[in-house]
Amino acid sequence: MHIPVLPHLLKRPGSYTPKRVATQVQVAANNLLLATDGIDGISRELVDKLSKIVDVYERKHTLMECDRRKENFATAIDLVRKLKFQSLTDRNVHRKSFNYFIMKGYIEKAQWELIKQLTEYLFMRISNLQGAIG
Asked: Is the pTM above the cut of 0.90?
């Protein structure tokens, strides 16, 4: 089954469910890794994939900046997974968007910012990749 990257979803994830955003983050990470030379495969944990993407695409940044970005991405992935699980188990938030989670206080603005940083970063990388290919 082929799942295309939806750039608009990565650019504005608030209107989408945690499950939908998690799927798009996974697909974007896979596509970025597949487009990178010297990658042995994509069968690894999502956090490890994102860490490898930062290592490959952020060579100009300091190690401390890369480590901070990796840590923020790992935290964002944990939040998305937590909210995805909550939407499966809590009927009050089943099939609700991130905007709903924020409005009802399930996540704080600072947590939301980490998720947005992740999706915006992947959007930027995918856009650059598509520009280089197309």
From this structure: no
